[in-house]
Amino acid sequence: MPPLLDGLRILVLEDEFLIAMDVEQLCRDxxxxxxxxxxxxxxxxxxxxxxxxxxxxxxLMLGGASTLDFAARLRxxxxxxxxxxxxxxxxxxxxxxxxxxxxxxxxxxxxLIEAVATACGRAKAA
Length: 126
Known about the structure:
21% strand; CheY-like_superfamily; phosphoprotein; Response regulator; Sig_transdc_resp-reg_receiver
């Protein structure tokens, strides 16, 4: 059976350097072909290639700014994603993004990878 994230290109929105490095390694360990880390929303706006990603892992806050508008852009582009955040304002997420899984920090690597795989339709059968 191929790794859960086999061949995927994953965008990671995470402003904490060590967490971003951990998430990148986790994704690669589970077969991701490419992992791109973005640490602030201005960087996203400068890039025009964000729609080439197969999936995204989105921290709710980047440098104190909400990522919910960007999450809406991902959804509109049909790119599956999960929220991974220490901010537990889950009501706002459930209201705006009822279909998106929130993986709360601190999370286990397995939980995060399974959430991404599920978002991409690759979940292990429970």
